[in-house]
Design goal:
It is a single chain. By secondary structure, the chain is mainly α. The chain has a domain of 56 residues. The protein is built from 5 helices and no strands. Helix 2 packs across helix 5 and helix 3 packs antiparallel against helix 4.
Length: 117
Amino acid sequence: MTMPEWLKPGLYGVAIGAIALSIVGFSWGGWMTSGTANKAAAMLAQEETTAALVPTCLALSQADPNREARLTAIRGVADYNRSNAIMEAGWATAPGMDAPDRNLAKACEAALQLDGS
């Protein structure tokens, strides 16, 4: 079968246009693969769950009979180790959890405003 002479440039144009459209769509158009979308959804779900549990962490800190002593001790710890101190205090272990959650401890640290601001 012989192709008309005008068809070849048209097919090249379609192929180049499809490639260009894909590059623009994935770079600037907001397109993403299903794997990237799943990762973004999982990260958002983790962030929202942590944000929802911050009031529980604050309530646990308020109910702690040794609150002032623990806060003083946590303030005395280096900034990078404060989340560990909050986890050791038990404030980052929400009801139903077996172990403390580091993300919750970091969010609780920010909510407690331990840096004095």
